[in-house]
Amino acid sequence: MNSVLLRQQIMAIAGNGVNPRFQLRAVFSVGAVKYTAQAVIGKYTLEEYGKLYTGVIKIQVAMITRDYMSLFKSRDNISVTVFQEQVDPSSEVKFANGLSYQTTYRGFLTDNSIASLKTDSGLNSNF
Question: Is residue 71 part of a domain?
Answer without folding.
Answer: yes
